[in-house]
Every structure is written in C-alpha cells, then in structure tokens.
C-alpha cells in the first residue's frame, strides 16, 4: 500500500505553519501557548539561535552513526517524543499513531498521563515506551497507574515535578479552552475544590497542601521496579538532590514555557546542571528543539538525548503516523548533516569543541 507524504514541508517550522489551519483554535491555543507573557516560550527558541557551531573539515567519517544507548535501550538517534496531552483532538488515531511512528523510526516515546487513549492501548503498538506520571493527591490511584504501567511493559517512569499547579496561560484563557469531557483522560483524578471564603486562597489554602514533595519521590522510588526520570529540573541543587535520592535520569526542562514565565531557556540551564551531575545519570533536555543543529548543540552542552513535543503534534494533525515519520526523517537528516559538518562521526565525538568560542 502506498503512503502519501505531506507536500511542501521541508522543516519542522513548515509543519507548524501548515498545522495552524487544521487544528481547532482552542486546542491550538492550548498547544502553542505559554505562561503569562510567554517570554520563556520565546526564549527556548532564541537561546538556540544564539549558539554558534564550529565547522570542521577533512574529518574521517567512516562508520558514522547516530545510534544512542539510553537506560538499556538502543535508539536510532538521541531523540524521544515528549508527553503531550489529548492527541486525539488533532487526529483520530491520536497517541496510537505517534507510537507507531516512533516504533518505525526507532526513537523513544513518553506517553502523557493525560493521554486520550489508555496506557495499555498505546503499549500494544509502542516500542519500549516510557510513561509520564504526575503524583496526584490520591496516592493509591497514583500507585495503581504505576502498577498498570509496569504490567503493560513500560520501560521507565517520567515523573514530572515542575507543575504542582498550572501556569497562568493567558492565551489559553482568552481562547476559553478546556479539555473536553469526551477526551479519555484516564490518568488524572481531580480532587474537588473545597468551599472557600472570600479571603481564602484556592491555591495556598487548598491545592498546594497535597502537592508532591521530596518525600513523595522517595515513596515512588521505593514502590516501583522501573527506573524513574525526573522531568522539569532547572536548578543544579535540585539535580544533585535527585541524583542522591536515586533517580535514573534527569530531564532539564522549563515545561515548554508553560508553567513559570521568566525562567531561562532549557538550553541555558543545561550546562550548569551537566557540570553538577558529572555524568552520574543520563541528562535529557526538552524545550525549543526545532532543528538537527539544536540537537547537536544540546548534546555538546551535556545532554545524552533530547525530546520534542509540539512539532510532532503538528505532524500528527497533518498526516497521522505518516506525518510523524516524515517529520522524524527530516530531523534525522538535519542532525546527520550537522554532525558531518562539525566533524563528528558518532555521538561520542560531540562535545563542547563543536561550539564556536569567541
């Protein structure tokens, strides 16, 4: 059976421009928006653009490869698809199509807690997937999710810790968007808000009382056989404490600029955390990756792999699994070219020497 590629798309930005016309405006605001004035959202892209590369010539590129070993898995390139909620709002096959594309391309995938398909349905077509987890007020329910992920064959848990509350996302508010009840968000259980007086804070006097702490990380590590990665680390001190606690990896992230505005770009946070961790656990990075050169820059500054979120949802909306495969092929081609032109035959060759120094 022949497949139809999406015409006239040559970069990840092309997918974004085309997808804007075929994604419902409310979900588009949810997907694309950031917190408050969206300074961090913009900075994630700007910071990558400010980093320059050092080209090299006449390098021996025999046996070149982008293969990556990560927590016992072999990936075709150092890339994973980040957790994004409710993907059936852009394509009928939703997370199933994304899992098929990731498996076909040999890249990793982390399924969102707020998936529009059950974690068991996605595991049936995914290749060694990871499961994103939020520790919720109902700890028993949280543990049920962990047990389901273990039973379904997930290879790791991605514990997102940088969003104990939602960011103030004005773009989303102006669009009046809320995830519809028809979307099957089986991984979230909301605790009803208690009645509050006029002087009470719904946040400080309510939800934060059950927000997870370092004690909950210890609890999770003691209640699962899966490796746990901490997602949302932006401070070197937190990275050190997480390593000491026994996490299997860290994902340097500002949540795509969606939680706290005025944070630095993820790529700006990475070097300090990499220096602190010193290779004791794998470091991953998300936020602002749009080019193969961005992948190279992240690896040069200490990441072992990167994640993308919004771009693959654009491709999903335009072409389902085929669209996501097409996008991943473009990104792989760009990454291979960037490696070759900086004299890197393998990922082991990528270090800060590929960055231009003033």
From TrEMBL:
One of its GO terms (molecular function) is oxidoreductase activity, acting on CH-OH group of donors. Its cofactor is FMN. Belongs to the FMN-dependent alpha-hydroxy acid dehydrogenase family. Transmembrane segments: none annotated. Pfam families: FMN_dh (PF01070). The active site is at 255 (proton acceptor). FMN binds at residues 83-85, 112, 160, 231, 253, 258, 286-290, 309-310. InterPro entries: Aldolase_TIM, Alpha-hydoxy_acid_DH_FMN, FMN-dep_DH, FMN_HAD. Keywords: Flavoprotein, FMN, Oxidoreductase. It comes from the Bacteria. This is 4-hydroxymandelate oxidase. SUPFAM superfamilies: FMN-linked oxidoreductases. Residues 4-358 form the FMN hydroxy acid dehydrogenase domain. Glyoxylate binds at residues 30, 132, 134, 169, 255. CDD domains: alpha_hydroxyacid_oxid_FMN (cd02809).
